[in-house]
Amino acid sequence: MSAPFAPPPGPLLDRYRAGDLRALARAVTLAEAGLPAARPLLRAARERGARAVVLGVTGSPGSGKSTLTDALIAFLRQRGQRVAVLAVDPSSPYSGGAILGDRIRMLRHHADEGVFVRSLASRGALGGLSERTLGVLALMEGAGFDWVILETVGVGQSEVDVAAACDHTLLVLTPAGGDGVQAFKAGIMEIADVIAVNKADLPGADRTVRELMAAQGLGAHDEHTWFAPIRRTVAAKGEGTEAVVAAVEAHRAHLGDEGLQRRREARAALEVRTLVQERLLRRARELGRDLYARVARGDLDADDAADTLLRGDL
Ligand SMILES: Nc1nc2c(ncn2[C@@H]2O[C@H](COP(=O)(O)OP(=O)(O)OP(=O)(O)O)[C@@H](O)[C@H]2O)c(=O)[nH]1
Ligand SMILES: [Mg+2]
Description:
It is built from twelve helices and seven strands. The chain is α/β, with parallel strands linked by helices.
């Protein structure tokens, strides 16, 4: 029986290679689940080579990351560029129902073949990236998008993860609550390649920009230091998006081919290390039980148990 809305025929891999967005959606699902069927797709994605601008968007909860991402989509589409977005759902108390809101907002692009939006659960780690995030980004890039945007809520470690996963990091701050000063104190500013002071329609934006600039001057720097351009945005009205895009492109020019290559190598290292970690921990969970009992009884010390697991000769 053939369903009325059956996907177009042809193996998934061919359809993915041809840029079919439904095939991409399926590929992402497989990759997210860590299924072996995702492997040929991931390989195909990488064979195409890296060419997208991979932009991480991070910042405190509610700072306007999704609104700004939506505005960036609109601007980039006007320029005829294709955009894929991966929103990592932190499943945290911070974001509440925001993901639903994101979906509804970005739905205005849903009929547009040049836009692909997907949310990914972060599996508990607060705002952190799952083991699969980098694979999913690679699939999006391999599907031929010009920009691949990763949105995550910045809570502690996650900003650092985002910076490691992307070519460029856009930090979204707001004039409210001394956001800028807090970012500086928490060492978050260091990972920013571009800073958006969003909600610039609210009071205090100028002051926030001044504080951020002063903070930038305090850090160690020389003639090669990249000072993250600080741009005022009113994402809700699409204001400042063009300046943000220009700043990201300026950072890309600053990195040059060599700098981009270094970032991509760091990303590859993160991806491989994450997979190794995941596999080792799975093996430890599955095979370690007897060893743990022996460690608990005092028959084996923990170091020897770890060595045994790593050697895999159980
Ligand atoms: N005044 C004003 N409000 C804005 C602006 N941009 C976004 N907002 C509002 O700020 C709220 C949060 O926006 P989101 O885009 O959902 O923020 P977010 O950073 O994605 O939030 P989380 O994903 O939950 O961390 C929404 O009510 C937006 O309408 C802006 O430029 N000015
Ligand atoms: Mg959001």
